[in-house]
Design brief:
Elements lengths: L5 E3 H4 E6 L2 H5 L13 H4 L4 E3 L1 E2 L2 E7 L5 E6 L2 E2 L9 H9 L8 H12 L1
Parallel strand pairs: 2-5
Antiparallel strand pairs: 1-3, 4-7, 5-6
């Protein structure tokens, strides 16, 4: 954490490549990996504003690397504060048609990749 409601992106973002639904539920930390750089999403300082206890997990489909994003946090800054709109930031970088926030919809991507 950098300050009140500011976190380092590198400490908050994790990735996991998955090929079936069971891997979405498996919390084995050895399967997750952290990126080395996130400036291409969060700017030069690689900070995320407006959250405390932030955890962002990208599950990437094994064949096409289509992302499912799960965002969890312990506290969010008050409405008058500067808060990064994470969903919009991710839609901008990954494209709204290739980004999922719903596990059920993402599970269809995994099933289609197996076919």
């Amino acid at each position: 954490m950098v300050g009140d409601y500011i976190v380092k992106a590198i400490d908050s973002v994790h990735f996991k490549i998955v090929s079936d639904l069971n891997q979405l539920e498996d919390a084995n930390s050895a399967d997750f990996f952290a990126p080395k750089f996130l400036h291409w999403i969060f700017g030069e300082k690689e900070e995320i504003k407006g959250y405390e206890g932030l955890n962002i997990t990208f599950y990437l489909s094994a064949k096409q690397l289509i992302p499912l994003v799960e965002i969890a946090y312990s506290n969010k800054a008050p409405a008058f504060a500067a808060v990064d709109n994470l969903e919009e930031i991710f839609k901008k970088h990954f494209g709204p048609d290739r980004l999922y926030f719903d596990k059920k919809a993402f599970s269809e991507v995994l099933l289609a990749e197996k076919a």
